[in-house]
Known about the structure:
The structure holds two protein chains of two kinds.
Chain A: E1 10-19, H1 23-34, E2 39-42, H2 53-56, E3 58-59, H3 67-78, H4 87-106, E4 123-124, H5 126-139, E5 143-145, E6 150-156, E7 159-166, E8 173-183, H6 203-210, E9 215-216, E10 223-228, E11 243-245, H7 261-269, E12 274-277, H8 286-292, H9 294-303, E13 312-320, E14 327-328, E15 342-344, H10 352-355, H11 364-387, E16 397-398, E17 404-405, H12 407-410, H13 421-432, H14 435-439, H15 443-460, E18 465-466, H16 469-493, E19 515-520, E20 526-531
Parallel strand pairs in A: 1-2, 1-8, 2-5, 8-15, 17-18
Antiparallel strand pairs in A: 3-4, 6-7, 6-16, 7-8, 9-14, 9-19, 10-13, 11-12, 12-13, 19-20
Helix pairs in contact in A: 1-5, 1-11, 4-11, 6-16, 13-15, 13-16, 15-16
Chain B: E1 2-5, H1 15-19, E2 25-26, E3 34-35, H2 46-50, E4 56-58, H3 70-75, H4 81-86, H5 99-107
Antiparallel strand pairs in B: 1-4, 2-3
Residues 19-25, 42-45, 50-53, 56, 58-59, 149-150, 184-186, 194-197, 199-200, 203, 234-235, 319, 322-323, 346-348, 362-366, 369 of chain A line the site of flavin-adenine dinucleotide (FAD).
GO biological process, one term (chain A): NAD+ biosynthetic process
Organism (chain A): Paenibacillus solani
Protein name (chain A): L-aspartate oxidase
Amino acid sequence: MNLHKQDSTLQLETDVLVIGGGPAGTWAxxxxxxxxxxxxxxxxxxxxxxxxTAPSGTGVWYVEPEVKQRQEAKLSRYFMxxxxxxxxxxxxxxxxxxxxxxxxxxxxxxxxxxxxxxVFRQGLQGxxxxxxxxxxxxxxxxKILDHSPALELLADEHxxxxxxGVSTQGGDPWRVTAGAVVIATGGCAFLxxxxxxxxxxxxxxxxxxxxxxxxxxxxxxxxxxxxxxFSSVTKTAYYRYASFYYEDGSVVEGAGSTKGRSVIAKKxxxxxxxxxxxxxxxxxxxxxxxxxxxxxxxPFDRMGINPFTDMFPVTLRLExxxxxxxxIHIVDDTCATKVPGLYAAGDAATRELICGGFTxxxxxxxxxxxxxxxxxxxxxxxxxxxxxxxxARREVHGLSSAPIVSSRTYGSTLQKPPIAxxxxxxxxxxxxxxxxxxxxRSDEGLRDSLYRLDRVWKSIRHEPIHLDYQAVKxxxxxxxxxxxxxxxxxxQARTETRGMHKRIDYPDVDETQRYRLITSGxxxxxxxxxxxxxxAVSL
Amino acid sequence: MIELISDARCVACNLCVxxxxxxxxxxxxxxxxxxxxxxxxxxxxxxxxxxxxxxMYVAPHPDRLSNRSEAExxxxxxxxxxxxxxxxxxxxxxxxxxxxxxxxxxxxVP
Lengths: 539, 110
Ligand SMILES: Cc1cc2nc3c(=O)[nH]c(=O)nc-3n(C[C@H](O)[C@H](O)[C@H](O)COP(=O)(O)OP(=O)(O)OC[C@H]3O[C@@H](n4cnc5c(N)ncnc54)[C@H](O)[C@@H]3O)c2cc1C
């Protein structure tokens, strides 16, 4: 018994509905509109400021189409990612990213130019980039619904045909029927307050799975970023210039930003505070770094700390799948899921195809977001077109696993749920945040966590959801719960250490496990192995 | 965490209400907006960046307030400081094409 047509104040019909308005969603919307589709884009926050890119900015995998450079680029992460990436996909994404970045220049993004006239397109300033994307999306005639989280997908027996949600500003329900839907809701960082990530709670994974889609690579979901203890800014690139210390100024042996993050985690687990100082940054580079990432310095300036000369306490903040690589399993070049009419792009989709089980310091994620957005937008537009007249006559119904009931239909007769969403959220965080559960994994730890997480899921999945502001938090709690269960089920199945997935009971790579893990199901989760294309990257 | 909307500076354009990704603010009829759900703030600084009146301050700590007074923040030139650094606002050039960016791109491979 889910949302009915008459419950919704705002009802729209469109060809393509895009859920999520970060880089992936905006590129999907632009591409679908350029193919002649009518497009609606709904964002939980505000398209232009919401999501992981908007406040932070990204390095971008922009590589000149020269054979040698491309080859080096493809190899750069291939082994770190555990050889799970695919050559064809890397080629496609490098091509599409190159094209999209050049288009951005034409559309008015001002890339840096040196006095000799060389242009640099390996990075994007988040606020600037996403402000421009919003402008372009609007100009393309896309209807944007801000502050309008999707709560469930709509479908009939032929496949997905829309979504329903609620406006968090005003509380009115909305319902959009569509020929095709693109999920671009980003990853899941479990409300850790990593920069820009608190809108990213795995909603798209949950909605896609409710429609029958599968996940891939969910074991690659334990990204932790270095940040000062007093700050949400999880930008890590500059920690390459950091030395790490104990309070007394002695060096923490082996600690580092890329290879030595585990050492930092171990010290923090022992309750020893670790400090950083960017004392390896040459003096003449420092003013450039300040311009390169303005907001990296914001917290320091506000605290009166000079990070180049002063030690400051650091922590590791969970970014989950945002800088992990797992997500919705896609089945073809258009980023289609196995469910007809449903597409996935950006962090919501698996990124294993281009970087395997590890993303390292960025660039790939941003490239994937804009490329997969373009692929999915095009695929969704073509699918919607193929439905023709049929699309408008579809009778679609909501798919939420917990029934969503309208306050209008039921008035106040629905009882307040016995357990607050915040309690569920805390319970999930207790399983996924600790380094000794999620970063350093073991069969015993995973089994314990799964036992508790399964209980949370059993409780939350049957509770009716009252369609008001609380509905959003309850769906977030459900999405985080099921995401954590997929993560740990696939982590349990991968009895080796590969990419970012670390098993303390299986510390080595097992070459017989060079496959991707596909998880499916909500109540009963199953995991299966999928072969990686044998066409290896040539050395 | 969002700490201040300056009554003195705010022009009640309600842009912060629109751009906040986590819907922290509420509009108030004929008045400046209010911080209605402070605990939902994710400390992303976007409201500060969009505020055309340099009327907002976000304390760096995601869970704690700094309790600095408006006068103190003004003194330290923290109101509108981020917006200025990023080069947003009339008469400013966005930092994305700053000459240092090109120099940095030469020396720093992401
Ligand atoms: C601090 C930081 C630094 C990073 N640096 C780099 C880097 O240098 N290079 C790199 O390649 N990558 C980097 N990344 C990763 C990169 O930011 C992401 O890969 C990228 O933002 C993904 O784009 P996206 O559009 O898929 O998701 P997002 O940009 O996260 O956008 C998702 C959107 O979906 C919306 N949404 C969520 N749920 C719903 C719902 N239920 N209904 C409607 N809308 C919803 C959100 O509001 C949001 O606007 C970084 C990430 C972080 C956190």
